[in-house]
Amino acid sequence: MAVEPLRVASLGMGWWSDVLADAINRSGKLTISACYSRSEEKRAAFAAKYGCRAAPSYEAILADKDIEAVINTTPNGVHLETTRAAADAGKHVFLDKPIANTVSDGRRITEICRKAGVVLALGYQRRRESQFRWIKRQIDEGLFGKLVNAEANISRDRLGKIDLGSWRYQAAGMPGGVMLQIGIHYTDVLEYLIGPVKAVSGQFARLVLPGDNPDVASLVLEHENGALSTLNASYASASEYYLMNIYGKEATAYYDMFGGLRMLKRGEEKPVKVPFANKDTIAEELEEFADAVRGAGAPEIGGEYATTSLAVIRAGIVSAREGRHVEIAEILAKG
Question: Is-contact 40 28, C-beta < 8 A?
Fold first, then answer.
């Protein structure tokens, strides 16, 4: 018997709400019933584009018994209040990363959803990319041996493309700037592949873009298994670029967005190209959320992990500000 699509409401009308809505339209497991933004113009445009109702208020969405879940792309700073309201109304929540701007808010969001018995899923789609799933399988099968090191880069060109009125490009709305906004995707991939992070050293700079937020950031991550990894994130680059190289005692995987994926095993002279197909990672994570709401499994990324993931970035911020090595446990303890 076919499962009825999950009826969702989109909350917060920005560019990412459209990305998620487009993914929902590519999937048969969800359907957008309504939308809400404080901007009447934005919600009317979204409703027209995606064929849903433009709700007059968030309260109207919460009171609508037909709506089962909220796709929340509101600013980080209001994730707590918007998610609490959804959970109190019995609505499940798909929340775009990061879970919040503070560890304490992340913990409260997680606990609120747990107590309400609603599913909380976080949008971390990068780890789902085929090249990283493939590398993870090889690691789990022991092909890499002891993991020792990794290097990653996630860069985009935002010169002349940012709106300084947007919360996404302000220190108050996106503390840590580029590292919290996009770098967190690759700290997640590094944790996914190598294991949890124990401590961080960070440096942040504003070199090209206007405003008050870092457009370049670098982290050195110390993983619990002893491996070290580095991550550079930039909004000041000439072009978009992604790099992820994973080094083990017995094998190395090289990935970059232009050269694809290659593998080099100990004793071999040249890396071998590894073919992979691109996946619809955003639709996949939304479908996983829908399945979890229907009682089939659980989201890969929930609130507890997302809060620890946020703590990695917060540790980098403290390290850059105070010029010291910062343990993740310290950030979690302070909340």
Answer: no
**Letter string b/e over residues 303-334, b meaning 16 or more CB atoms within 10 A of that residue's CB:** bebbbbbbbbbbbbbbbbeeeeebebeebbee
CA dihedral 205, 207, 208, 213 (to 10 degrees): 30
| Each residue's pLDDT expressed in tens, for the chain with a length of 335 residues | 678 999 999 999 999 999 999 999 999 999 999 999 999 999 999 999 999 999 999 999 999 999 999 999 999 999 999 999 999 999 999 999 999 999 999 999 999 999 999 999 999 999 999 999 999 999 999 999 999 999 999 999 998 888 888 888 888 999 999 999 999 999 999 999 999 999 999 999 999 999 999 999 999 999 999 999 999 999 999 999 999 999 999 999 999 999 999 999 999 999 999 999 999 999 999 999 999 999 999 999 999 999 999 999 999 999 999 999 999 999 999 98
Rounded-to-integer distance, Cα 169 and Cα 187, Å: 20
Cα–Cα distance, 85 to 82 (Å, whole number):
5
Q: Name the token pair of 270.
A: 């040249």
Q: Taking CA 61 as the corner, what is the angle to CA 58 and CA 62, rounded to the nearest 5 degrees? A: 90
At the topology level, CATH places domain 129-277+310-334 in Dihydrodipicolinate Reductase; domain 2 (3.30.360)
Q: Where are the domains of the chain?
A: 6-125+283-300, 129-277+310-334
Structure tokens given for 214 = 């870092």
CATH topology of domain 6-125+283-300: Rossmann fold (3.40.50)
